[in-house]
Amino acid sequence: MANAPVADRRLRLHEETVRGLQAEPKHLPTAWLYDERGSRLYAEITRLPAYYLPRRERELLRSYAPDIAARAQAETLVELGAGSATNTRVLLDALVYVGTLERFVPLDLNEEVLRESAPAIAAAYPGIAVEPLVGDFLDELAWLPAAGRRLVAFLGSTIGNLYPLQRRAFLRALAGVLGDGGAFVVGVDLVKDPRRLQAAYNDRGGVTEAFVRNALTAVNAELDATFEQRRFDFDARWDPAHDWMDIGLRARQAHTVSIPGLELEVSFEAGEQLRVEVSTKFRREAFDREFGLAGLRLDSWWTDPAGDFALVLALPAVP
Ligand code: AVI
């Protein structure tokens, strides 16, 4: 199930962790969120009433997956950050109906999650070869199978978890690998009333908080670090300057954390931020521009009546 060697991936993650903890504001790479426990907590988040994103996306897929499948005529469906691939099934159904699909390649950081979801999908779609890949979509685009017409899916607004420079590099790389006849479908959460965003990322039951705090637990386990949960508060707030939810922790008091696995000591001031992820919310014009600059053109942009979420089909721009 593996592609890029695991040791390389861990090394890259560790290097990014050092850079992030020395940056201003301090941050941890988002990948720390998605160990086995984190992936399960995220799956729980997707079922929270206030976390509207997956439901809006599913409604849009139910309406437009047939158009996407007819347009893409894909033999291979690749899903980046597939996780449990719940909404993907709507797309799979439409591709199977069109009759072109031969292969489904779910790519995810977490091997355990793929070990559960891939056999379940293989059982539900017996005519389709399911070929899971473990890895980070930021590094692994070159590993994607090249066979046949491809539809690459990036659902759940995970694109919003990339920083602008990462997103630019990712979109350029994707445009490069899509090739003639390839298509890209992406789910994107849209800018809306900040109160709804606050509610979506601050659930009363504390599932989102547990998901974010789990990043500290993961760093402690892998790098022998001394992060203590009680020394941090959970903090998720709307940042209108960047159009993103800024999600992470804040030090309750000044203290120092050792990370022997990175030969690093990190000092926090009282109130200092430790960002764990950003969740960008998009506007159509900016999105259009970014895709154009990357060599992709928007073929379709579908939204729900309230304008909460968009499902976007993009194709390589004609040179
Ligand atoms: C995976 N990703 C799209 C989620 C989001 O909404 O940005 C991760 C998440 N973080 C907190 N809640 C959900």
Describe the structure.
By secondary structure, this protein is of the alpha/beta class. Helices cover 38% and strands 25% of the residues. The protein is built from 9 helices and 14 strands. It has helices at 6-21, 36-45, 53-72, 88-98, 111-124, 164-178, 194-201, 207-223, 284-294; strands at residues 26-27, 76-80, 103-108, 129-130, 133-134, 150-154, 183-189, 232-239, 244-251, 255-259, 264-268, 273-280, 296-303, 309-316. The longest helix is centred in the N-terminal third of the chain and has 20 residues, at 53-72. The mean pLDDT is 94. N,N-dimethyl-L-histidine binds next to helix 8 and strand 12. N,N-dimethyl-L-histidine binds at residues 45, 53, 156-158, 160-161, 201, 208, 211, 247, 277, 279.
Low-confidence stretches: none
Q: Assign a percent range to the helix content.
A: 25-40%
State the distance separating the first and last CA atoms: 35 Å
What is the multimeric organization of the chains shown? single chain
Q: How much β-strand is present in the residues? A: 15-25%
Rg, nearest Å: 19 Å
User: What's the helix count?
Assistant: 9
The ordered H/E elements are HEHHEHEHEEEHEHHEEEEEHEE
* Nearest-integer average pLDDT: 94
Ligand catalogue: N,N-dimethyl-L-histidine
The general outline is: globular
Give the total of beta strands.
14
Q: Structural class, from helix and strand content? A: alpha/beta
Main β sheet profile: 8 strands, mixed
